[in-house]
Description:
Elements: H1 30-37, H2 49-58, H3 60-74, H4 84-103, H5 113-135, H6 142-147, H7 154-180, H8 192-216, H9 219-233, H10 241-244, H11 252-259, H12 262-274, H13 287-307
Amino acid sequence: MVSQTTAPPTTPAVTDAAPTPLLPVYEPGELAALAARHELTVSGARPTLGAYVRQLWGRRHFITAFATAKLTAQYSQAKLGQIWQIMTPLLNATVYYFIFGILLNTKKNVEDFVPFLITGVFIWTFTASSITAGTRAISGNLGLVRALHFPRASLPVALALQQLQQLLFSLGALVLILIGFGQFPRPSWLLAIPALLLQTVFNTGVSMVVARLAARTPDIAQLTPFVLRTWMYASGVMFSLDEKLKGDTVPHFVKVALECNPAAVFIDLMRFALIDSFSGAQLPPHVWAVAAGWALVCGVGGFVYFWKAEELYGRG
């Protein structure tokens, strides 16, 4: 007869032997030495500043193509298409002429007020649009940033280039308006080239600063329009700062701050280059040195500031 009872399960014997590790254990620094021996680098690490500049230069064709594609797509859904590139600043100038030139009579004591106003609106729009685009440089291209490895500075640089391309379209209309109001081409128009170059460097630098800030704090994009509107009113776009600063009614430090305002400096340089009646006496002292200083400080400083957070863009 077979017994129905079964033997109790045996408990495995407990031993004092250490468990066998599943992964190999390395001494401190051994893996780093192994990676260095095989020339491995950290993924997404920030390159040196020199290497970063070389990488950015190597992507120059991408930057140009990206800027052109953005510009082409900007008004692709509109019936009038690319005509809006010229119509938008012209309509803004028309509104400002009605409000400031006619209702508030700021055209008083300003010769050639229409060329004066339109030049100011076009040049201001270049700076304002570059900075606004910079706030979306990273947050508006997160898919690109997270999917591909490339110097992130390509994005704000490309968007600043897009705004320069748009300004060049607008300048064609500006030239026709200037000629229509008796401002014919003369040698001083060549001064517009260095003025635009300095303004472009300045715009790109500031755009890179706001790109880094907005990548970490998206609320910056909501605050930017209010800051730009305040800045525009302090830049003499619709009226003559030179007329407003005459006399002793304005404190000296406010006068100096307004004269060194970079937007006002670049606008005045373009007016001096393009408008006969806007003489050198209306320019603040050392205006070219001030413009070059703003371009150097913001261009170089903005680039370095953006580069320092290179490995953080697109994360979080």
